[in-house]
Design a protein that fits this description.
single chain; alpha/beta; two-stranded antiparallel sheet; 11% strand; binds 2-acetamido-2-deoxy-beta-D-glucopyranose; glycosyltransferase; disulfide bond; EC 2.4.3.8; golgi apparatus; GT29-like_sf
């Protein structure tokens, strides 16, 4: 790191630089702990109203930085034949788009924009027992993350409707042996998402490209009802920078925040569910990591509490709604 020269003693300069670096690396504001947040959430209660001018202002910021309507997925329009596409999750690696890959891209973003009411469903344990399924499914467009289970035991809490589901290449590797052996179980496990879009970050990491393309061919070969969209690495990179400027310090944003950001631009109204990265619910009782299991995410990769705080700020500004409590009041005893 280069430092400007001054006439101050060297030791003082070093001290000043290290303080500045510390302020840069660590957020200046202390993250509130989970008990404080629970108190704040309870104080606000269920009341929430949209602030249209705040929403429009935020949407303009997102559109200016990241052009979600145009760049959300890889299309023939935004990724021409022969272009050098840079991976967003790797340093200095790119891929030249040849005809074999290019021909898999849709002509243009396939949604009719704007989408109206959108539900973005994170997989947090807070959804368990929430009875939010009906409310989630009442939206026009439901986005779910990382192939979450939707079997009947969960329907009451998370619903079943899905217009878009994301799949990380690591899931293809771990759960479906990279689709190198039997591919049927992959096709079978996607049936629950009916005719949704399957959103694959195929161009984020080098080792994710092949499994993602295999997922495409598998669904095509089995004439599955789902349509694959590849995440555009330029979109993901820009959204990452956008949140970094707002103070989210992590190696990579979670899929959930990528999806909530896209939804804020693509949809007229956004409600997010299952975004609560803490270990207690609003009553202070311990909860599991996900609504379906208790496997913690890889540590040191995402910064979920920081991401949650940003969503909570948007909630307080009337830009999106963060649903945390039960969707239907509990039955009187
Ligand atoms: C709505 O948001 C705008 C812009 O952020 C702000 O100036 C205004 O006070 C907000 N209105 C209400 C009712 O909170
Ligand atoms: C590119 O691929 C498409 C679909 O596979 C094929 O129809 C077309 O002929 C190919 N074009 C070239 C120039 O190879
Ligand atoms: C596609 O959807 C139709 C109508 O819902 C259904 O009958 C069919 O079995 C589905 N096909 C596959 C491969 O899932």
């Amino acid at each position: 790191m280069k430092c400007p020269r001054t006439r101050l003693p060297v030791g003082f300069g070093a001290l000043a630089v290290s303080v500045l670096c510390w302020l840069y690396v660590f957020p200046v504001e202390r993250l509130p702990d989970e008990k404080e947040l629970v108190r704040e959430v309870l104080q606000r209660g269920r009341a929430w109203s949209r602030n249209l001018s705040a929403l429009q202002g935020f949407r303009k910021q997102l559109n200016d930085c990241c052009h979600p309507g145009h760049l959300f997925s890889v299309t023939k329009v935004n990724t021409p034949l022969g272009v050098n596409l840079w991976f967003d999750g790797e340093f200095l690696h790119s891929l030249i788009i040849e005809n074999s890959t290019y021909s898999l891209f849709p002509q243009d973003t396939p949604f009719k924009l704007p989408l109206k009411r959108c539900s973005v469903v994170g997989n947090g344990g807070i959804l368990k027992g929430s009875r939010c399924g009906k409310q989630i499914d009442e939206a026009d467009f439901v986005i779910r993350c990382n192939l979450p289970p939707l079997t009947s035991g969960y329907t009451l809490d998370v619903g079943t409707k899905t217009q878009l589901v994301t799949v990380n290449p690591s899931i293809i590797e771990k759960r479906f042996q990279n689709l190198l052996w039997s591919r049927k179980s992959f096709v079978e496990s996607l049936k629950v998402y009916k005719s949704s879009y399957v959103y694959l970050p195929a161009f984020s990491m080098r080792h994710g490209t092949e499994p993602s393309l295999r997922a495409y061919y598998t669904l095509a070969d089995f004439s599955a009802n789902q349509t694959v969209l590849f995440a555009n690495p330029n979109f993901l990179r820009n959204v990452g920078k956008f949140w970094k400027n707002k103070g989210v310090h992590s190696k990579r944003l979670s899929t959930g925040l990528f999806m909530a950001s896209a939804a804020l631009s693509l949809c007229e109204e956004v409600t997010v569910y299952g975004f609560w990265p803490f270990q207690i619910d609003l009553k202070g009782s311990p909860i599991r990591h996900h609504y379906y299991d208790d496997v913690p995410p890889l540590s040191g990769f995402h910064s979920m509490p920081e991401e949650f705080l940003q969503l909570w700020l948007l909630h307080k500004s009337g830009i999106l709604r963060v649903q945390l409590g039960q969707c239907t009041p509990e039955e009187p005893q």
